[in-house]
């Protein structure tokens, strides 16, 4: 699609949809206008004339006057049907729906290939931060070693409100919802699933690895115990929800989303409120840091706007790294991680799962914890991880290649 006047068929007129409308009004240079809007609730009052709205998706998908479908609804299953049909109908699509993308990425990549129609989704990972196109284009030849970041705005907003402002968890979550940062189902945010969906997109564009979300471990902030929070405070560290993907020496990729202790000098320690931050590490450019708003109406709409503009000059993702790295796979059993585990007497973790246990603490008043090293795959499989009263927080060290138990024993003799 290379034209300068775009007529948009917009699905969804919630936080981001209304943000996009406002942003387009203030961006006359793009010459893009919303032709029709599909929404769901017939009883909701709208801020635009009623004739602009429809409740039938076909009114947009079958309308030849609409060049681009912008999909901004909060239902991933319905979004999938809409996006697929739009591509098959030859309409370019811009979406912010990371859940839908993460669940259907292989098919959506194939559909772009077979139809020749572009699907862009910069807003789906880190909202206003231009990460997808940078990972796809800028790091095209400079080999990336890792991406590590705070990629969910709501949980960062909640953790900031709790730690800096002393707000209770439930109050901070309610505020994140009120401000339009949280998903309609906020469990996606606080359980680490939204960050994991975004990590799927980062993996595809950073490393050319297309993985399903369920293949990666995600632990959310909803399980952070008061003992873990106290441990962090006493050590002068902050707990952040961090998504990490790291190339291992043997070529596999270790990837996970975990609450993580972040040291004061680390780039991510300065990412507050609903901001996101992403650190990339690559062969030649070395370490780089992206920082910006990771949720909210205008920041997210700004990324949608950028995708619309990119469509006008014929931009599409080429997924070059997927072709180059067809052999690449996730290797959780080749990786290990240092963690803090807090637990109640009733649900103690199995210490035999750990390669090493470092520090132990037991107190009838404060609760119990230990720190140790565990294989990433072992941690993901551990039944105790999901037991009530168990909290796992990654220590400040990154994911790394697993050291075999024997090698460790030899080294310590
Ligand atoms: N909020 C944010 O900061 C960010 C959100 N996103 C993503 O953007 C998308 C939209 O989020 P957000 O704007 O916050 O969500 P909202 O809940 O604010 O709005 C959702 C909109 O979708 C409409 N809708 C739901 N189902 C359908 C359907 N089947 N057909 C047509 N319209 C439908 C709703 O209609 P109605 O008005 O009738 O209820 C509503 O207008 C989500 O995928 C989200 O994950 C991505 C980055 C940031
Ligand atoms: N709920 C998401 C919205 C943006 O992606 C978040 O909080 O990051």
TrEMBL record:
It holds the Pfam family NAD_binding_3. Residues 12-122 form the Aspartate/homoserine dehydrogenase NAD-binding domain. It is an enzyme of class 1 (oxidoreductase). Keywords: Amino-acid biosynthesis, Methionine biosynthesis, NADP, Oxidoreductase, Threonine biosynthesis. Residues 130-308 form the Homoserine dehydrogenase catalytic domain. Gene3D superfamilies: Dihydrodipicolinate Reductase, domain 2, NAD(P)-binding Rossmann-like Domain. Its EC number is 1.1.1.3. InterPro entries: Asp/hSer_DH_NAD-bd, HDH_cat, HDH_CS, NAD(P)-bd_dom_sf. It catalyses: L-homoserine + NADP(+) = L-aspartate 4-semialdehyde + NADPH + H(+). Pathway: Amino-acid biosynthesis; L-methionine biosynthesis via de novo pathway; L-homoserine from L-aspartate: step 3/3; Amino-acid biosynthesis; L-threonine biosynthesis; L-threonine from L-aspartate: step 3/5. Belongs to the homoserine dehydrogenase family. This is Homoserine dehydrogenase. The lineage of its organism: Bacteria, Pseudomonadati, Bacteroidota, Cytophagia, Cytophagales.
